Each structure stands twice: as C-alpha cells, then as structure tokens.
C-alpha cells in the first residue's frame, strides 16, 4: 500500500468537540485527516494540503461561513476536481430552507452535498464513495 | 272642518264698508281669521305682508284697481287663493283676472251660503297646493340628503388607509379608492372597466370562484400577496360577495390592507426560532457524537479517553442548560415589561451580592476585584432581579474572558441624573468587528483566545434588553489583548 493512495480529507469546524469526533471517525475508516477551526484557517490548510475532499461546517464566524469557504475552494483549479460537503445542524426542521437538489441551488451553493450533524459515518462514506474518494483499505 | 281650515286666514279687500263688515262677521262666525282692507293700497300692503290662505278682492275700488291688487299679492304670495268680487262681471275681466292668477269669480251680490261655499272651495284648493308643495320640498330634501350621504361615504372611504375595490358580477369596476391602487401598484383604472385582469392572480382567482358559484355564500376569502419583491410590500386581500336584496350576487368587495410590518416581525421571529433551534441542536449533536464514539466497539476507545469524552459531554450539557435558562429569561423579560416588581434598588448591595455569588469562579481564576463606589450613591427604582441579572452577566463575562490572576475594576458614581457603573477587565479584549456584533443574539466572539470559553451567546443581549427597558444606555470600549470596559448608565427616579 502506497502512502499516495491514502485519501486526504479536510475537516473545518469551529466546534472542537465535533471536529475531534469526525476526525476520529474518518481516521478509523482509513482516511488521512487535516483540520481547521475557522474558515480562514480552512482555506490556508486547503491550499497547503490539497486534500481529496472537504467537509465544512456551515455556521462558523458568520451564518454562511461554510458556503463562502466552499465557494472559494470551488473557484480554485484543485477545488473544482474534488467534492466539497457542507456539514450542518441547521436543517430544514430548524427553519433553514436549503438543499442542493435543484440546479439553481447547485449554481449558488458551490458544494456537492449537505451532511447533517452528528455525522452518520456510513452516510458520509457513501457520499465520498460516489466521488470515488475511498479509504485505503478498499 | 278640520282645525287647520278653521284657523285659515282670509283677507277682504273692499271699499264698501257694509259688505266688508258683513263678510267679516260671517267668516269669523265660521271660525276663520279675518283681516280687512278698505282700499286697494291697504289691500296690497296687507296682502303682501302675510301669506293669507284666501283673499277676496273687490274689482272696482276708487284708488287702485282690484286686478292690480291681485297682481301684487300673487307676485309676493303665489299660493294665496284670490277671488275677484264684482258686480260688473265681464268676459274680459274674467280672462284677465284668471291670467293674473285669480282662482275664481264671486259675482255680487251673493248670498252667505254662496260666499261660504266659494271660500271653502278656495281653501280646499289651497290645501292641495300646500300639500303638493310640501311633498315636492320633502322629495328635494331627501335627494339632497342622499347626495350628501353619498359624498360623505365617498369621503370616508377615500380617507381610510385600507384599499377598497368593488366590482359587479360582470367583473366591471364599480368603485375604488386610491389606497387600493397604491397597494396593488396599479394606475389608471376606469369605472366600468373590466378590471379583473389588472388584479393580482391570487385575487382574480378568488373573484372567479365567488362569481362562478351558483349559490352565494356570505363568506370572506382572504389571501396574502407579495406586491413588491423582498417583502417590501405585502398586502392582505379580503374578498366578500355583496348580495342583492333578493339574495342574488351583486358583486364583490375587496378590502386590501398593508401587512408588510406584521410579516417582517413574523420573519424576525421565525429567524430567531431557527437560530434557537440551531443553538440547541449543536450541543446535542456534540454529546450524541461522543456517545456514538464510546459505544462503537470498532473504534476501541480506552477508559481514559472515554472519561474525557464523558466530561466534555457534561460541559456541553451544562451549556445547554444555561442556554435554556437564558431563553426563559428573555421570554420572562418580555412578559415582565408588563408587570414588573419595581422597588428601591441599592446598586452597591446588588454588586456586592453578585460578587459573592461569583466567588467560586473568581477564586478559581485567582481574579482580584477592585471596587470604587461613590458614597451615598442614589437609589434607583427597578426590578431587583433584573438588575442582579445585569451585573451577574457582566461580571461573569469579566471573569470568563479575563486572564489567570487578572483584575476586575468596578467604578460607580452619579453622573447628572444617571448612575454610571463601569466594569473593566484585564482580559482578552475584542477586535473592532467583534465589538460591533457583540449585542447580537447568539453572537460569540470566536478567535484563537476564546477557544474553550463556553457561553450561550445571549448574555449580553439580555444585558442590553434590561438596560434599554429602563431607558438607560450601555457603552463598550475594548482593546484586543488588553481588556474590555462596559459602562452602564441607569436613570435615577425612573419608574
């Protein structure tokens, strides 16, 4: 097994508990995880690490920090070739009405999927798999 | 004979004294009111000064001709019934006097019966004329009343701030006021025009529904329409069928009211609820995540890690409890503005008891509190639980965001009609952009130095609500890395 085969995932979350939990879950599945606690730090880590996928918390410093970071990542050449997921507990039931199911939403929400907190690891894996981001053991 | 006729007034104009006196007595015996004139001149003066029911005018008088008297009386009082009495009846004078408005001739000499009969006929005619006149006047007054009623109604409808549109069953415009045009953002409509196409789809659909119904249902259908985008103008339209007296449909009346402000408040409320829900879910997600990890055997978490995760879960649950308490405080405060318990509050005592309450936190971080409070600081009138809450939130922030072994300075003194209290800490301070959002609900400064400090994001918004509810002021100064000072000004003698 070559180290280059190990998929690298960027995790951005300002909640250190959730960040640590998700890092642990992904590492247990065989991913390499790089993390950041703010959108700004997240973009820096992204540029330095060139990950294979990014999972970004929506509400950080601002209500839409996650969207903005996803947009910035998707504007780079590397970002265009990797999946970006938005992670949030602000779901439809809590009154935030968005998804990425229509082309219009895809147009302005530059991400490839929405994940709910707390993360269900199987759901996350199948999302990553659909973009051919699979852990080393596979 | 009715009372009215008996009281009828009669003028006798005759130069012949015997006839004058004889007819006067005759008529007075019948119950009439009689005045007499012995010549044409007096006849004109009396006959034009009062609206007699009947005048009997002698044709031939020495001074003025009877026809002249007739003319003058008729010009002034056209409804006085005039008889021409003469012994020289001729065809010519008959025509002439009729033309001048005489009712009839009384040929002389006449018997009392003949005379009374003629007078009675004349009075009947007078009654008919007066009745017709009265009816005419009444009708005119009614028309006038209707016209003024209509214009009054018009004025009222034009003046009300709600929009009013009335259409008939052919969907033609019958009535509108200008508020309606403003609310619908349309100009240029005409009475009688098929206006339905110009109305928003939501309204025209309701109108179609009402008009197409076989049986008219006296029910109001309402709908809300966004007239201008971005919630700039939202109106509510209430459409009610108008029935004819026979129960068939006459038309539809549409009342339009501006509900933009209500909608905006609704939006703010629902945004707040969304934020609350999000803030409640986040710690739950964190706790759930820790439990999932501990329960997942495949992750093989050791005892030490497990204990750490459980401890961190407890911290998150405690902050969740704090959040629920803060939310309850906010809702209690909103109720309390209605019935507060206002009493004399001693600021010094309140600050002292707050410091006692926070003693454990102070000791844990080894923070020194230095107070400088003016002697005889005026008492303020307030709800003591709210003032306690205010100091608890500010001082506990000064502890939380302070450095280890830092200081807190509390300075209180009277400043004109205010009590001013400064609470300064030697903590991490704020960046200018953080300061601007400080009082927003759920806002918490997030930077490298705030990591690990827990809070609900509601403390300062509660402080601000309390201060403002007493017509006070709150100011904040801060230098990032050096500390923050909150200054509160509370009015003295404020109820």
Tell me about this structure.
The complex is a heterodimer of chains A (138) and B (495). With 138 residues, chain A is of the alpha/beta class. Chain A has one domain: Rossmann fold, CATH 3.40.50. Helix content of chain A is 40%, strand content 17%. Chain A has a five-stranded parallel sheet, sandwiched between helices. In chain A, helix 2 (39-49) runs parallel beside helix 3. Chain A starts with 7 loop residues before the first strand and ends in an 8-residue tail after the last helix. Chain B is of the alpha/beta class. Chain B folds into four domains: 3-134, Response regulator (Rossmann fold, 3-Layer(aba) Sandwich), CATH 3.40.50; 160-258, Beta-Lactamase, CATH 3.30.450; 264-322, Helix Hairpins; 343-491, Heat Shock Protein 90 (2-Layer Sandwich), CATH 3.30.565. Helix content of chain B is 47%, strand content 22%. Chain B contains 15 helices and 17 strands. In chain B, strands 2-1-3-4-5 form a five-stranded parallel sheet, with helices on both faces. In chain B, helix 3 (40-49) packs parallel to helix 4, helix 10 (303-336) packs parallel to helix 15 and helix 11 (347-357) packs across helix 13. The longest helix of chain B has 48 residues, at 112-159. The radius of gyration of chain B is 48 Å and the shape is elongated. In chain B, 27% of the residues are buried. The chains are: A alpha/beta (138), B alpha/beta (495). The A-B interface holds A 14-18, 21-22, 24-25, 28, 37-38, 59-61, 89-90, 93-96, 117-119 and B 270-271, 273-274, 277-278, 281-282, 285-286, 288-290, 292-293, 298-299, 312, 316, 446, 451-452.
Which CATH class of the largest domain in chain B?
Answer: Alpha Beta
Strand content of chain A: 15-25%
Gross geometry of chain A: globular
Rg over C-alpha atoms of chain A, rounded to the nearest angstrom: 14 Å
Number of helices of chain B: 15
SSE class of chain A: alpha/beta
Biggest sheet details of chain B: 5 strands, parallel
CATH architecture of chain A: 3-Layer(aba) Sandwich
Strands of chain A, total number:
5
Instruction: List the total number of helices of chain A.
Output: 6
Please identify the structural class of chain B as seen in this structure: alpha/beta
Mean pLDDT rating of chain B: 88
Which CATH first-tier class of chain A would you pick? Answer: Alpha Beta
CATH superfamily of the largest domain in chain B: Histidine kinase-like ATPase, C-terminal domain
């Amino acid at each position: 097994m070559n180290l280059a085969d190990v998929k690298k995932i960027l995790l951005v979350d300002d909640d250190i508990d959730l960040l640590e939990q998700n890092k642990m879950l992904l590492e247990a599945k065989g991913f390499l995880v790089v993390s950041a606690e703010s959108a700004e730090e997240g973009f820096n880590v992204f540029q330095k690490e060139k990950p294979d996928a990014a999972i970004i918390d929506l509400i950080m410093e601002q209500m839409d920090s996650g969207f903005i970071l996803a947009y910035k990542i998707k504007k780079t050449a590397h970002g265009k070739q990797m999946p970006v997921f938005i992670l949030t507990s602000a779901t439809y039931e809590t009154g935030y009405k968005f998804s990425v199911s229509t082309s219009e939403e895809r147009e302005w929400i530059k991400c490839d999927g929405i994940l709910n907190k707390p993360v269900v690891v199987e759901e996350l894996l199948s999302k990553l798999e659909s973009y051919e981001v699979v852990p080393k053991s596979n | 004979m009715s009372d009215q006729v008996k009281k009828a007034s009669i003028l006798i104009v005759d130069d012949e004294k015997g006839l004058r006196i004889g007819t006067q007595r005759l008529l007075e015996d019948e119950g009439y009111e009689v005045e007499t004139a012995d010549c044409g001149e007096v006849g004109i003066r009396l006959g034009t000064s009062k609206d007699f029911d009947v005048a009997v005018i002698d044709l031939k008088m020495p001074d003025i001709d009877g026809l002249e008297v007739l003319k003058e009386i008729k010009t002034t009082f056209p409804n006085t019934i005039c008889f021409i009495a003469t012994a020289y009846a001729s065809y010519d004078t008959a025509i002439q006097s009729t033309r001048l408005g005489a009712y009839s001739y009384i040929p002389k000499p006449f018997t009392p019966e003949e005379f009374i009969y003629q007078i009675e006929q004349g009075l009947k005619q007078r009654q008919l004329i007066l009745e017709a006149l009265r009816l005419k006047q009444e009708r005119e007054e009614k028309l006038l009343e209707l016209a003024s009623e209509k214009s009054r109604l018009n004025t009222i409808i034009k003046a009300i701030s709600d929009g009013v549109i009335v259409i008939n069953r052919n969907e033609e415009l019958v009535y509108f006021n200008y508020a309606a045009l403003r609310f619908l953002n349309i100009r240029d409509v005409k009475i009688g025009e098929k206006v339905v196409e110009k109305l928003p789809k939501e309204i025209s659909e309701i109108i179609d529904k009402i008009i197409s119904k076989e049986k008219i249902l006296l029910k109001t259908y309402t709908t809300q329409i966004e007239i201008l985008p971005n919630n700039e103008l939202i109106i509510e339209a209430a459409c009610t069928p108008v029935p004819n007296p026979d129960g068939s449909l006459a038309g539809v009346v549409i009342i339009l009211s501006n509900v933009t402000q209500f909608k905006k408040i609704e939006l703010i409320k629902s945004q707040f609820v969304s934020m609350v829900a999000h803030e409640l879910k986040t710690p739950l997600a964190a706790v759930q995540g820790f439990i999932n990890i501990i329960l997942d055997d495949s992750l093989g978490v050791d005892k030490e890690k497990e204990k750490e995760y459980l401890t961190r879960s407890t911290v998150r649950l405690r902050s969740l409890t704090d959040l629920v308490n803060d939310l309850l405080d906010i809702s209690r405060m909103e109720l309390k503005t209605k019935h507060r318990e206002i009493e004399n509050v001693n600021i010094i005592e309140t600050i002292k008891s707050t410091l006692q309450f926070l003693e454990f936190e102070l000791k844990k971080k080894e923070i020194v509190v230095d107070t400088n409070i003016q002697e005889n600081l005026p008492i303020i009138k307030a709800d003591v639980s709210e003032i306690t809450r205010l100091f608890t939130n500010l001082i506990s922030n000064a502890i939380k965001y302070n450095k280890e072994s830092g200081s807190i300075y509390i300075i209180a003194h009277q400043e004109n009609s205010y009590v001013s209290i400064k609470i300064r800490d030697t903590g991490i301070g704020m960046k200018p952009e953080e300061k601007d959002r400080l009082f927003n609900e759920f806002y918490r400064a997030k930077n490298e130095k705030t990591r690990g400090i827990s809070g609900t994001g509601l403390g300062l918004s509660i402080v601000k609500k309390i201060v403002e509810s007493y017509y006070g002021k709150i100011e904040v100064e801060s230098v990032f890395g050096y500390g923050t000072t909150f200054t509160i000004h509370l009015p003295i003698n404020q109820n």
